[in-house]
Amino acid sequence: MNKTILITGANRGIGLALTKKCLSKNFYVEACCRNPDTSNELISLSNNNPHLNITKMDVTCAKSILSASENFKNEIDIMVCNAGINNGKGDLFSDEHNENAIMEVMMVNVGGPFLTIQNLYKNLNKKSTSKIVIISSLMGTQTHLSKNAPIYRASKAAANNLMRTISNHFLNHNIIVSSYHPGWVRTDMGGVNADISTEESATGLVNHFLNLEQSDSGKFFNYDGKPLPL
Ligand SMILES: NC(=O)c1ccc[n+]([C@@H]2O[C@H](COP(=O)([O-])OP(=O)(O)OC[C@H]3O[C@@H](n4cnc5c(N)ncnc54)[C@H](OP(=O)(O)O)[C@@H]3O)[C@@H](O)[C@H]2O)c1
Fold first, then answer.
1. CA–centroid distance, residue 209 to ligand 1 (Å)
2. Structural domains in the chain (count)
């Protein structure tokens, strides 16, 4: 039986690469993005592939998430909260860190996974073990030495904390909840000098999603499956 994976922010970057990788493995993909009409790569993928269903969804809006759920074709085996932003790469005194920017990054990177899981829990396949994955970042760990991107780092630390709390919520519910660092990836966010391609990141991530076991719930992993400290 083919698995169904839901991916937020599926129109570009790591989300798009995850979509392609999962289609190549014969998954059904519920690809969620803010602007399906202009998501040309997703549209052309869906023209040749009935396994791909594209749905409009803004992860910062519960109403948008709930209305997206009405368009899904299948129950979800793996839910990937991938959508994210980094709107402030400077340090403490950078002008980028104004009130609106802080609210936006917290809302997308923390509120986004929370609202997605809260509103799409009902769409998880409860007949077998299902998996919820948050794409976080090594930048959110407590052991780093950088002084840059303080708000983005805090948002990813919070995303990992959210992963822990939600994993506690679903203990004994047959739902595994984990988070991942996708690597430093060549995307609009990661930039052209990043270490790895979206294809490398997505290959590692999808392989590890498939191998996740109940004992992995509450844990943070690198894209290649190596456990990471929170
Ligand atoms: N690239 C890296 O090196 C790296 C490293 C560590 C962690 N990450 C994490 O990996 C994830 C994906 O990053 P990426 O590098 O692929 O970034 P990206 O290329 O900038 O893509 C970000 C994706 O998130 C979507 N998004 C943003 N706000 C959204 C919202 N409110 N609702 C729905 N979708 C929204 C974007 O959609 P639009 O096209 O509509 O804007 C886009 O699809 C993020 O969570 C990021 O923090 C990336």
1. 19
2. 1
Q: How far apart are CA 137 and CA 17, in angstroms?
A: 17
The residue type of 21 is K
Distance 228 CA to ligand 1 centre (A): 21
Mean pLDDT, range 42-47, rounded to an integer? 96
Q: Is 80 in the pocket of ligand 1 (CB under 6 A)?
A: no
Q: Does residue 8's CB lie within 6 angstroms of at least one atom of ligand 1? A: yes
Instruction: Categorize the per-residue pLDDT at 146 as very low, low, confident or very high, splitting at 50, 70 and 90.
Output: very high
The partner residues of 79 in beta bridges, in order of sequence, read 6, 132
Q: Which of 82, 180, 192 to mutate to test the pocket of ligand 1 (most atoms within 8 A of CB)?
A: 82
Tens-digit pLDDT profile for residues 81-95: 999 999 999 999 999
Residue 185 beta carbon below 6 angstroms from any ligand 1 atom: yes
| Structure confidence by residue, pLDDT tens digits, 172-216 | 999 999 999 999 999 999 999 999 999 999 999 999 999 999 999
| Positive or negative torsion for Cα 60, 108, 23, 122 | negative
Looking from the CA of residue 139, the nearest atom of ligand 1 is 6
CA of 172 to the centre of ligand 1 (A): 31
| Residue whose pair of structure tokens reads 């506690």 in the numeric block | 168
Q: Which domain holds residue 16?
A: 4-228
Give the residue-averaged pLDDT of 120-139: 97
Numbers of helices and strands, H then E, in the chain: 7, 8
* Percent of the chain residues past pLDDT 70, beyond the cut: 100
Residue 14: which CATH number? 3.40.50.720
